[in-house]
């Protein structure tokens, strides 16, 4: 069967350096080579009793990840994909071969669902994060180039029950490439603050990374943490920092020239940014510049509909981020909602998914984000189109995941 391969992004190299390594949090002396997903999966502890294991955990994870990359939105769809996987696909993922018949056998769907629920989600998150983090240097050739990354949380509404709140996760995404690098479970949206550092701790190197986030994360501790890790921040300032907000609001913005303006006639939007050096005695750590962004929305006849003003701070010096660059970095804060959270809900049906058992919701969320990233790295800007391509041939998701031999 012939199948079409989408255009590969010339700026992105999927190969991972042989020197990229990851030390498992539960095995301080054990170091793994981050060669591909198979190597990642081998470092995730198998929770099952050694007696009676017929199918390796690596095989189970590979089949589930491939099914999800094909757009499987639920356990039923995952089970269907695995049940109908042809022999050549089972061979590629390393499935067990029946000595009597000579055929490769897939694990029973019940075994798959039960095993996914038993695996420790934190181990899965750490392994996937280390794998993606090891690729960042391939996405950005210049070691001095700024790397925009946005942090935001998402609630998995389908996990809510009558006596239990919906599960919430915090994630970090490369804003330009729309590839999720790391995720972590949090108790609720309010606890995103305490999960900020543990989330980014999963990423080995943050040098020259520029973190953008919503006002919840505009905190002194976050700024100091990023400074210690040679990273930068671009934070909006609001009511959670009243002293700083009043200080910035009182500045003579009417005397500051407009640094950059964006004009989007099609969407009826304009954005204006003004930037000035940090005023003396600013009440925020390591801040180098402060800015004011005004966003205006118009109807089809160009009549004003709304106007919003946002104050902000950054530790980026002017030589690294002029007004235009700052406007781009602030705008990138919304990328994770548009290019990951929205896609997980609409294309992969995450909010409709009723999987609630143990670690399963977290692991499936990580796999959905990874599948989205894998399709984007193949050149798909429309992920629904990418999942249709992946469904055209059972080999296609293996190609997207780099699991072909």
TrEMBL record:
Pfam families per the UniProt record, alphabetical: DDE_Tnp_1 (PF01609), DDE_Tnp_1_assoc (PF13808)
Highest taxon of source: Bacteria
Domain H repeat-associated protein N-terminal: 42-130
Protein known as: ISAs1 family transposase
NCBIfam families from the UniProt entry: transpos_ISAs1
Organism per entry: Microtetraspora malaysiensis
Transposase IS4-like domain mapped to chain residues: 178-359
């Amino acid at each position: 069967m012939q199948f079409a391969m989408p255009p590969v992004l010339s700026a992105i190299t999927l190969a991972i350096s042989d020197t990229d390594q990851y030390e498992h949090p539960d095995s301080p002396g054990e170091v793994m080579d981050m060669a591909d997903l198979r190597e990642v999966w081998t470092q995730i502890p198998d929770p099952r009793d050694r007696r009676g294991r017929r199918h390796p955990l690596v095989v189970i994870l590979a089949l589930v990840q491939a099914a999800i990359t094909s757009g499987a939105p639920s356990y039923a769809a995952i089970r269907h994909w695995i049940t109908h996987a042809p022999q050549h696909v089972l061979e590629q993922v390393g499935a067990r071969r029946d000595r009597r018949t000579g055929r490769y056998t897939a694990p029973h769907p019940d075994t798959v669902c039960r095993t996914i629920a038993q695996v420790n989600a934190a181990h899965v998150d750490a392994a996937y994060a280390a794998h993606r983090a090891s690729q960042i240097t391939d996405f950005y050739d210049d070691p001095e180039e700024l790397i925009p990354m946005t942090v935001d949380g998402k609630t998995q509404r389908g996990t809510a029950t009558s006596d239990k709140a919906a599960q919430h996760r915090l994630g970090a995404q490369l804003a330009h490439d729309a590839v999720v690098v790391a995720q972590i479970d949090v108790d609720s949206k309010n606890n995103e603050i305490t999960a900020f550092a543990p989330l980014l701790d999963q990423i080995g190197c943050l040098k020259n990374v520029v973190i953008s986030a919503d006002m919840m994360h505009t905190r002194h501790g976050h700024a100091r943490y990023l400074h210690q890790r040679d990273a930068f921040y671009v934070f909006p300032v609001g009511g959670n920092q009243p002293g700083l907000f009043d200080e910035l609001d009182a500045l003579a913005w009417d005397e500051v020239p407009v640094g950059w303006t964006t004009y989007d006639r099609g969407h009826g939007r304009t954005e204006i940014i003004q930037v000035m050096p940090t005023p003396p005695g600013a009440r925020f750590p390591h801040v180098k510049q402060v800015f004011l962004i005004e966003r205006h929305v118009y109807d089809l006849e160009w009549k004003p509909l709304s106007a919003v003003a946002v104050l902000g701070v950054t530790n980026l010096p002017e030589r690294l981020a002029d007004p235009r660059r700052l406007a781009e970095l602030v705008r990138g804060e919304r990328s994770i909602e548009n290019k990951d959270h929205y896609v997980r809900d609409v294309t992969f049906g995450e909010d409709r998914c009723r999987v609630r058992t143990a670690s399963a919701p977290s692991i499936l969320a990580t796999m959905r984000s990874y599948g989205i990233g894998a399709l984007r790295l193949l050149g798909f800007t429309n992920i629904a189109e990418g999942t249709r391509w992946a469904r055209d041939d059972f080999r296609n998701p293996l190609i997207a995941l780099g699991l072909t031999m």
